[in-house]
Fold:
Amino acid sequence: MQETYHANPEPASDLIMSTKLDPRKKYLFAFAHPDDDVGIAGTMRLLVRRVAEVHCVWATSGDFFGQGQTRETETYKAMRVLGLSESNVHLLRFGDLSLVSKLDEAVDAMADLLRGLRPDIVYANAYEGGHPDHDSVNFMVSEGSVRAGLHPELFEFPLYNGSGSLIQLGWRINSFPDGGPEVLHTVLDEDAVRCKYGMMQTYSSQWMYMVPARLASSRWKLTQTGEPYRPFPLDRDYTLPPHKGRLGYERWFNFFMGIRFRDFRNSVMMARKRNNP
Structure:
C-alpha cells in the first residue's frame, strides 16, 4: 500500500535555514513531464512539511507513447505522497515532445501561470541537453518571467545529460555538465528521503528511468551531500548548446524524437524576436 505523507506545521529548523530554503516565500516547481519531480522531491518535501506555499506545474503529460492519462494519475499519487494539495497542481498539457515546435505558445502559458501565482522562487528542469522538453521548460521559465514582468529567483536541478565520461558511458545522472554557476545542495532528512523514494514508486510506468534515478540517489548521498541545484546563470545564451559534444536527445537511440539542437535554437530565436522586434 502506498504510504502517504502529511504536511505537519513545524518551525523552521537549522536544516532548512542552512539549505537556503525559506518557508515564508512562495515556490513554483516547473517540470516537463510527470516523474521529473522526483529529481527535486526531497527539497519540495522540506518546504511542504513546513507549510510553505508550494505549487507545481507540468508542461506535458508525458503522452508521447499514449500514456498521458496513466502518467497524470501517477502524478496525483506522487503529490499525495508529497502532501501537496491538488489545488496547487497545474497541468499545461502540451504534447510530449511538442514544446520545441510550440515554444512561443508554451512561454505564454508559463507567463500566464507566473503572473497569476507571482512566486518568489522558481525551480525548473536544468538546461542540460538530456531531453528537448527539459531544456524548453528551462527557457519557458526564463522567458516567461520576462513576459510576466516578474523577477523571481530562478534555480535549476539536473536529471540526466550526455556530458559524462567514457566510464559513465557518456551519461551523467543527477549531475550538471561541467561549467556554469556553483552547484549548491539541499541536504535531506530521513523523512524527505522516504518521501522521495515513495514518489519514485508511484511512477511505475516509468520504471526504466526510476531505477537509475534511485541508484544515483543513495540515502547516504542525500543525507550527507543533498539534492543538487544551482541558480540560472545571468548570461545564459539559449542559442548555444548546454555542453560540448553530442546532446543526449541527438543520439541514435533517440531517433524517434526527431529533434536537433538547431530546432531548439530556431524556436528560441523566434520566441525572443517576438519580445524584441
